[in-house]
Model the fold of this input.
Amino acid sequence: MKPDNRGQSERIAAELRAQIMAGRFQPGVKLPSIPAWAAEHGVSTTAVQTAWRILKAEGHLVSEGGKGVFVRDRHQFTADVAAYFDPAERAIEYKMLAVAEVEAPADVAAALGEERAVLRHRLMLHQDEPVELTWSYYRASLAEGTPLAGRRRIQGGAPRVLRELGYPEREFVDRLSVRPPTTEEAEALDIPQGVPVLRQFRTVYSANERPVEVSVIIKPGHLYELSYRQSVSVDDQR
Done:
């Protein structure tokens, strides 16, 4: 087993972050003073200060002048991979960043089955805070001349257009990975230094497993957790 070579402040932040996410420190709880925490854990006060600063930038902690440092009353989004947020959720809004016909990236082209694609690039905001970037690609041969190729908001979204074109969505497959953000992602989503992103590579299929949409979805790692639910039959357990 390799030793943990991270700095002391990063290790402290990691431990406290894990305890907050596990419910060991509830929202609104006041943390011990920095000297008290340092003495209890045998670390330097400078390392604790730096760790607190990291967690404040991520939104886990908040300072109240003259009172101390508290666990912030903020929860991660639990994103069900089976759907986006409820469209009726008024706190959610989308900002269209770009719509264009493009040469699809290699992985997108392979999944979509076509090199030319119509791209719809969007930023999602929750209560006016940026929380997600999406690049959605559609076969150019299918999307040209349709609302998918326009900048206007689509009533009923892409699923309605695809359905009207004769390609209703039947299922999707997500591939998930974690990596550091690109500069564009870090700036657009205001990601604190050192925080990774969740990358969802989603392929949407119509009938006969025909791919009709591929989306690359980027979520800040400190704002999200993903939820899966799978029924298991008796036969599956034999």
